[in-house]
Design brief:
Chain A: Pfam families: ABC_tran, TOBE_2. The complex is a heterodimer of chains A (386) and B (288). Chain A is built from nine helices and 21 strands. Chain A is α+β, with helices and mostly antiparallel strands and 386 residues long. Chain A has two domains: 238 residues, Rossmann fold (3-Layer(aba) Sandwich), CATH 3.40.50; 119 residues, Nucleic acid-binding proteins (OB fold (Dihydrolipoamide Acetyltransferase, E2P), Beta Barrel). Chain A has a six-stranded mixed sheet, sandwiched between helices. Chain A has a six-stranded antiparallel sheet with strand order 13-12-11-14-20-21. In chain A, β9 and β10 form a beta hairpin. The longest helix of chain A is centred in the middle third of the chain and has 17 residues. Chain A is elongated, with a radius of gyration of 24 Å. In chain A, 44% of the residues are buried. Chain B has one domain: MetI-like (MetI-like fold). Chain B is built from twelve helices and no strands. The radius of gyration of chain B is 23 Å and the shape is globular. The two termini of chain B are 39 Å apart. The chains are: A alpha+beta (386), B mainly alpha (288). At the A-B interface, β6 and α3 of A face α8 and α9 of B.
């Protein structure tokens, strides 16, 4: 994709995208199970919003309700202010990329891509031109006469995206589109989707269970769990200021180290040890769930104040950095991110330390964040935890 | 372990040999003979085939066969497809009674052909108690000569055959319809396809294989149908509904002409085989 393409697309009236509003939508299935409960979300025109969460958290159901493939039990869906809740999928100007691509097996690539335009009344000639252009952008020119069955996984994925962009919809929906690809292809397609969005700033709702995908692609991440939104924010907000234990444990690879602890007179105690002395005041004494990111822990002199004796159990060298699993007094098992050049070996005995400023604290009962690291100077998250 | 397929294939080869190959070989032998039902073959020759080609009624019988078969096959496909799609749709929507509907349709299938003929003969009866004519009269429509008019008799025979055979087509189409990936319909819906467009662009192309296979099977079944016609019209009035299989039955069991009947039976086998080859060729082309 070159610059001319982007300009051509703009000239051709490429949509900037719609504003999407979900107002208290809920989905209960006939059996009584609740897939989504009272979900509020706004996607601004051109925004790339990623819904992320473990399987069964309601993210795909939410996407399907936006597509019009599933009717919400409660709530309203608005596209550009217009209430589309009662409209079928065919009447909403959305395009969707399915997890298993759902290409029409009996049609050529060109017909697959042109089908939506033809159904919406475009002439044969218009369709041919639009398909050729989309094929050029996605480098599918040579495959237009093939059937989906003759394509590789990556090619099918590109055809599915081509089918979506060829219509220039106001809203793009992606349902775990990369999960059927192998790891290498997934990373390159990730880049391709992102690049496509940069050239073609259509409002996008993207569902994935892969937090790395969510972090790398999103303008804003919506972390979902058990049918509810746990947190909405930019990738860095969600990473730096997880609103709940769930988000802290879900976002980040490896995830945040979490351990039960107590606040006593402004200091953090765990397993009878005083771990961090100067936790900023303002919180009452009592039990808490404490969290430290792997990069917040460092090696320390065993004699230093607050240093926790630890034993190295496992090493995961990643090239640029090395992840190590330590068992530390007071913390239990913790992942620590080390410089790749650090001299480490399993069985090593050393001490770990952290800054109180990097500490996350959560209410052990409700799981909500009480305090989030050294990030007070950042703006508050856009979304509100529910 | 060495593979010894022949040993394992032997039992089924024996069964098939006994049940199929020997009788067919015997029909081939009889077709070249002057055997009748009353006495075995005395001489062999082509006289049976010669007589067959000279027979004046063969043209009428073949014409009847073509009309009956084409009309039945078209009717069976349409009715089977319609019921299958209705049931599949009912299933998807979780409507009650879909299993009952399927069972009712299947019930027609297990009715023996002769019983089917008798059932429809009663329904089509032109006597005052004839169910269909009484109903027509009730709503002020003229009575129809279902069985006594030569052209209507063919319509009646086709109707009875379609009623009975719909279940088979339905089972084939129902299975094929359920095998279609529901995502395709969702993708088409998002693409803006209305229900009719989804039927034309997704359902029909996806059912192409089933339609072709079903056409082969239903054509062969229909070609071999004689029992329901025998009970319904006996081939009449005149020869208006006498199809090839019924003609063979009549020739062997009323005229005792075993040699001639065998020759005609081989013609039927040849037609069925030829049709099968045509459809297999179509099937192959449909894949590329």
């Amino acid at each position: 994709m070159d610059k001319t393409t982007a300009e051509e697309l703009r000239r051709a009236g490429a949509a900037e995208g719609a504003r999407l509003n979900l107002e208290g939508i809920a989905k209960r299935f006939d059996g009584g199970s609740v897939a989504v409960s009272a979900l509020d979300l706004e996607a601004l025109p051109g925004e790339f919003v990623v819904l992320v969460g473990p399987s069964g958290c309601g993210k795909s159901t939410t996407l399907r309700m936006v597509a019009g493939l599933e009717a919400p039990t409660e709530g309203r869906i608005r596209i550009d202010g217009r209430d589309v809740t009662a409209l079928g999928a065919a009447d909403r100007d959305v395009a969707m990329v399915f997890q298993d691509y759902a290409l029409y097996p009996h049609m050529s690539v060109a017909r697959n891509m042109g089908f939506g335009l033809r159904r919406r009344g475009a002439s044969r000639e218009e369709t041919r031109r639009a398909v050729a252009e989309a094929a050029r952008i996605l480098e599918l020119d040579d495959l237009l006469d093939r059937r989906p069955g003759e394509l590789s996984g990556g090619q099918r994925q590109r055809v599915a995206m081509g089918r979506a962009i060829v219509r220039r919809p106001r809203l793009f929906l992606f349902d775990e589109p990369l999960s059927n690809l192998d790891a290498r292809l997934r990373i390159s397609m990730r880049t391709e989707v992102k690049r496509l969005h940069a050239r073609f700033p259509t409002t996008t709702l993207y569902v994935t269970h892969d937090q790395t995908e969510a972090m790398t692609m999103a303008d804003r991440v919506v972390v979902m769990n058990a049918g509810r939104v746990e947190q909405v924010g930019t990738p860095m907000e969600v990473y730096d200021r997880p609103a709940s234990l769930f988000v802290a444990g879900f976002v980040g690879s490896p995830p945040m180290n979490l351990f039960p602890a107590r606040l006593e007179a402004g200091a953090l105690h765990a397993e009878g040890r005083r771990i961090l002395p100067d936790v900023p005041a303002g919180l009452p004494d009592g039990p808490v769930m404490a969290g430290l990111r792997p990069e917040a822990l460092r090696l320390a002199d065993p004699g230093a104040q607050g240093a926790m004796p630890a034993r190295l159990d496992l090493l995961e060298p990643l090239g640029a950095e090395t992840l190590a699993l330590w068992t530390a007094e007071g913390l239990g098992e913790v992942w620590v991110r080390h410089d790749a050049r650090a001299r480490l070996a399993p069985g090593l005995r050393a001490a770990l330390t952290a800054h109180a400023a990097d500490l996350h604290l959560f209410d052990p009962g409700t799981g909500t964040a009480l305090r989030s690291g050294a990030f007070e100077n950042r703006s508050a998250p856009l979304g509100s935890p529910s | 372990m060495a593979a010894r397929p022949l040993l394992w294939l032997l039992p089924i080869a024996l069964v098939l040999g006994t049940v199929y190959v020997i009788p067919v070989a015997d029909v081939v032998r009889l077709s070249f003979s002057d055997a009748t039902l009353l006495r075995p073959a005395e001489s062999y020759g082509l006289s049976g085939y010669a007589a067959m080609l000279e027979a004046r009624d063969l043209g009428v019988v073949l014409r009847n066969t073509v009309v009956f078969t084409v009309a039945s096959v078209v009717g069976l496909q349409l009715a089977g497809l319609l019921v299958a799609l209705l049931v599949a749709r009912g299933d998807r929507r979780g409507l009650p009674g879909m299993t009952a509907l399927r069972t009712i349709v299947l019930a027609a299938w297990v009715v023996p052909g002769v019983a089917n003929g008798i059932i429809w003969q009663t329904l089509f009866s032109e006597a005052p108690f004839g169910a269909i004519n009484s109903t027509l009269a009730l709503i002020g429509l003229p009575r129809v000569a279902w069985l006594s008019d030569p052209e209507m008799a063919m319509v009646s025979a086709v109707l009875a055959n379609v009623w009975q055979g719909t279940a088979f087509s339905m089972v084939v189409f129902y299975a094929a319809r359920r095998a279609i990936d529901p995502r395709l319909y969702e993708a088409a819906e998002v693409d803006g396809a209305r229900p009719f467009a989804r039927f034309v662009y997704i359902t029909l192309p996806q059912l192409k294989g089933a339609i072709l296979v079903n056409t082969v099977l239903v054509t062969i079944q229909t070609l071999n149908t004689f029992d329901s016609i025998l009970a319904l019209t006996g081939g009449g009035p005149g020869r208006a509904t006498e199809v090839l299989s019924l003609h063979i039955f009549n020739r062997v069991f009323y005229n005792y002409d075993l040699g001639g009947g065998s020759a005609l039976a081989l013609v039927l086998v040849a037609i069925s085989t030829a049709l099968t080859l045509v459809y297999i060729a179509l099937l192959g082309r449909g894949r590329t």
